[in-house]
Specification:
By secondary structure, this protein is an alpha/beta fold. The chain has a single domain, classed as 3 Solenoid (UDP N-Acetylglucosamine Acyltransferase, domain 1). It is built from three helices and 25 strands.
Length: 227
């Protein structure tokens, strides 16, 4: 059973699973699909038109004909966060994410599982964030950029280029400063491998994982970097 506050507005095309909490003044419109056991705080907006100048904003069809939003299960989305519908494909949020207040996720974004975004994180259109990444307070990501799985992006950072998996990056523009040691250790990576990755990221050298045993999930995250 879903708990929906009486002030919330839920569109006719919204589909949701079970156990969701929809807080006061939440607006969910357009083609939105929600999984189970999500929590949406006051004033959250999901499914608004993509903020694209050429997209028709119609008086007779105010939610437009975008590509919708798909939200998985067990996500927490705090007050006044915004998740806009896609333009070319659905905006996708995975499972188990913690999205804090006033976060902005623009059209066509792809957010993996167990991602953490602190307050006022801004993601432009077509941004991909890998599973387990952590974006600090007020960080922003340029359109079409990727933040790799397990990456730690510091508060106030401006990401203008792709960030590999499990990096530690901060600054304006965001600069790779090493590996996200804590994230790697929590993932069960051997200390020697953590040190190797930290040295490679710190010096800008190539990450060579040939012959290194990694858990399957971690190996998939690094597969684009293998050579």
């Amino acid at each position: 059973m879903n708990e929906i506050h009486p002030t919330a507005i839920i569109g006719d095309d919204v589909r949701m699973g079970d156990g969701n909490y929809i807080g006061p003044f939440v607006v969910i419109s357009s083609e939105v699909e929600l999984g189970d056991d999500n929590w949406f705080g006051a004033g959250v907006t999901i499914g608004a038109n993509p903020e694209v100048r050429s997209f028709e904003h119609s008086r007779t069809n105010p939610v437009g004909a975008g590509a919708g939003v798909v939200v998985g299960s067990r996500n927490v989305v705090r007050e006044y966060a915004q998740i806009h519908q896609g333009l070319t494909h659905a905006t996708v949020i995975g499972d188990g994410c913690f999205i804090m207040n006033q976060v902005y996720i623009a059209h066509d974004g792809r957010i993996g599982d167990n991602v953490t975004m602190a307050s006022s994180v801004l993601l432009a259109g077509h941004v991909t964030v890998g599973s387990g990444a952590n974006l600090g307070l007020g960080a922003s990501v340029h359109q079409f950029r990727t933040v790799g799985a397990g990456a730690m992006i510091g508060m106030g950072a401006v990401v203008t280029r792709d960030m590999p998996p499990f990096v530690l990056a901060f600054g304006t523009p965001a600069t790779i400063r090493g590996a996200n040691r804590i994230g790697l250790e929590r993932s069960g990576i051997d200390a020697e491998v953590v040190a190797m990755l930290h040295d490679a990221y710190s010096t800008g050298s190539t990450v060579d994982l040939t012959g290194v045993h990694l858990p399957d999930a971690i190996a998939r995250a690094f597969s684009p970097l293998d050579s």
